[in-house]
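User: Hey, quick favor. My workstation is busy. Could you predict this chain's structure for me?
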Amino acid sequence: MFRKKALLFIFNGYCEFEISAAISMLRETHDLYTISLQKNLCKSEAGLTTVPDLIINEADPNDFDVLIIPGGDLQPIAEAKELFDWVKNFAEQGKVTAAICSGAYVLAQAEVLKGIPYTVTLSKEQRNFLRCFDEETYIYQPLVRYKNILTAQGHAYVDFGIHLNKMVREVKKETIDFYSGERNIYMESDSK
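Assistant: No problem, here it is.
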């Protein structure tokens, strides 16, 4: 059976909890690959060491259906023009492009957010300082979707994961309940 492919962009200081529900759910239908600017090990915000599968210039956007960009420490990627160009190309193909928390910075630098509604976990002062965000289209909401672009506040990581998966496949109510902490159908069948 042909499986779809998803990319998770990683960098030193990326926030792994923000993408945990999204990638856990995606494994049902997609093979997940990590991508980075360099082939170096990346240490996440909480100290998880991750090896990238690919670097930007090795990844053909045509081979992937989904791109996920976590938030975290923006300093290592602040001037990554190669990344911004690659992301712009990916998003312009109409592929699902999702960023959470400060990860939306990559979308803003790639000009993917130009003229469309979005959210990001950066204060107005931070957004103005970075000079790549359009204040007129910023919305303070947990999640904002516009066509193939999904942005989310960091605290909405479960809803981000659920919504991202709904953009690429049908998601069962039992799965939503499980990740939302509502109920676990498997445990309920054991208690009968």
